[in-house]
Design brief:
about 60% helix; alpha/beta; about 90 residues; four-stranded mixed sheet
């Protein structure tokens, strides 16, 4: 099984906003994950939350570019009611 990291909104947003105080660290961690060939996994709610932050704080072009990268660079999972009650997720 390939090792993966479940991404959260804060680091996802920090990675795209150069003015965020955690931008440099988020970029460094993304590069490390790529070197280690770890998959980045996004739950749909996290994807939507991060996209909304990028859209409203950085604008349409940044949001579109971020979403395009997320579509290609991450695996997506969708929590189901059953999975949430078990504390897990179902793959999409």
């Amino acid at each position: 099984m390939k090792r993966a990291v479940l991404a959260d909104t804060g680091p996802l947003y920090a990675a795209v906003d150069p003015d965020d105080e955690h931008h440099v660290r988020a970029q460094r961690e993304l590069k490390r994950l790529a070197r280690e060939k770890r998959a980045v996994v996004l739950a749909y709610p996290t994807l939507l939350e991060a996209y909304t932050l990028v859209l409203y704080r950085l604008g349409n072009q940044a949001a579109f570019a971020w979403l395009k990268d997320a579509l290609v660079g991450a695996a997506w999972i969708n929590p189901t009611p059953e999975g949430l009650s078990r504390g897990g997720f179902e793959s999409c």
